[in-house]
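Q&A FORM
Asked by: J.P.
Topic: structure of Rossmann-fold NAD(P)-binding domain-containing protein

PROVIDED:
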Amino acid sequence: MMIRPTTIAALVALITLTSAFQTPSNTRIISTTTLFSTPPERTTDQPPKPPLSTLVKRVAVAGATGRTGKLVVQQLLSQNVPVLALVRDTDKAMSAFDPTNELLTIRKTDLGSKDDVITAIQEGEGVDCAMWCATGFSDAPDQSIWDKVSAIFGFATNSQGSIDAVGLPALGEALAKSPKRTLANGSDKSAPLPKVVMLSSAGVTRPDWTDEKKSALEGCAGIPIVRLNPFGILGVKKQSEEELRNCGTEYTIFRPGGLNDKWPKNSRPIFSQGDVAVGRINREDVATILVDLLSTPEATGKTFEGVSIANSDGYYPPAESLSVALDRLILDKDGVSEDVARATYAIMQQLLPGEKQAAAELAMGQTYEQLDKEEIGRLGARGTEEAPIVKTA
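REPLIED BY: S.T.
REPLY: Here is the structure written out as tokens.
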């Protein structure tokens, strides 16, 4: 019997696929039913989403004057969505936004105070969802050195009392008992829309990985932010995520890779799960994704990472909707298997920027391009970076 070349190629592809899902200590062949499930039936004649302004009453944005939060507010206002900006510095907010805009309400809010956050939402004139874009300290270019040092020192000495640890769960608690948000446009989607969208960070779980997993997935476990973990920020983010999941409200957690304003914007986002993504994404694209998540029921109850493929030549424009990509992702309550995470890692490593594609060789403050040219980054050589370090167990 003659075996066709196409048949041989198919067998080789199958063997390659199954081997990609083997762990270093376990070489069993994984059942295809474990790896793949029948996706929900999709049709191309779904009615288009209505304007976001018809789906939300008012969005509370925590960290509204931050580098990402400001972009989120601007996008919401451009879509005629009322915004309640929760800020620490009202003068800064008045200069960042048009205070005469009737859609914008600026409220001075202590995000480190549970009571103040809950009161802000309750008095927010119909706030039915929130966006968390705040962080314990900032790299904003207009922030003074003293403000940066003070913020970092405060975070280091009181990480469990940081705004991530206090303010984010308070947002969830404040919205937990509010009516569910749904996509009422004739769609048969059963999942509700998220009430709280959290801007987190890729890498938050990696400091807690086993040594074996860190070694096997060195390309994402050995990057500078994970290796150094300044003031334990990743652990605080991880704990804040968990508290949001447990607060009883519908949520979405988005963990972008490296925020880079020089990376081409309007590029195609690539989403993954398992906390294995490494790469870059433009901050404006992150803001667009965060706003889009407010009207994407497929995102509810899910945590996922994202980087983007540069669209400088126009070959990889973003999809018109996030729904199809996010529909394929796994709900947090179901969990991502170790085999799937490792297979995803193998793919994501091929999307790294630069020629060497060696994220684990980077120093803090060093770019992929500098690594390719063997140039020292702004914080010094790897292992001697001038950056605060917190050792993890």
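FOLLOW-UP: The chain has a mean pLDDT of 83.
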